[in-house]
Amino acid sequence: MAHHDHIATHDAHEHGEGMGKKQIWSVFFVLLALTALEFLIALGFVHHWGILQKGTLVNTIYIALTLVKAYYIVAFFMHLKFEKSSFIVTCSIVFLFIIYFIVLMLIEGNYLLTHLQEHALYPNN
């Protein structure tokens, strides 16, 4: 029984599944640096020094940094990077459909907001 456990552990290490301490710490420091950059932009560049103004550029930077952080979390801590490529494609397609659905709902909500406001709520009164 102990021999079988040793073989299973050896096979898992051969295929490169999981992460070592060095890789965990490197991902941690990347996430820490991205978070520090977000705080530097928010508190330093926007509020304290006034180099950047709140608006589309700052929001785009925040979204890009958040997507990079989400990639690192999903890829390394949720072990998606170590999965087979077909599973990664399946998860990515589902994620894209969810984003597509959210965008469609926002567009539809904006349309209803602008067009329903033009008409009286109770026209017979």
TrEMBL record:
GO terms for cellular component: plasma membrane. It is found in: Cell membrane. The chain crosses the membrane at residues 24-49, 61-80, 87-107. Keywords: Cell membrane, Membrane, Transmembrane, Transmembrane helix. The keyword Iron does not apply. It comes from the Bacteria. It is a multi-pass membrane protein. This is Caa(3)-type oxidase subunit IV.
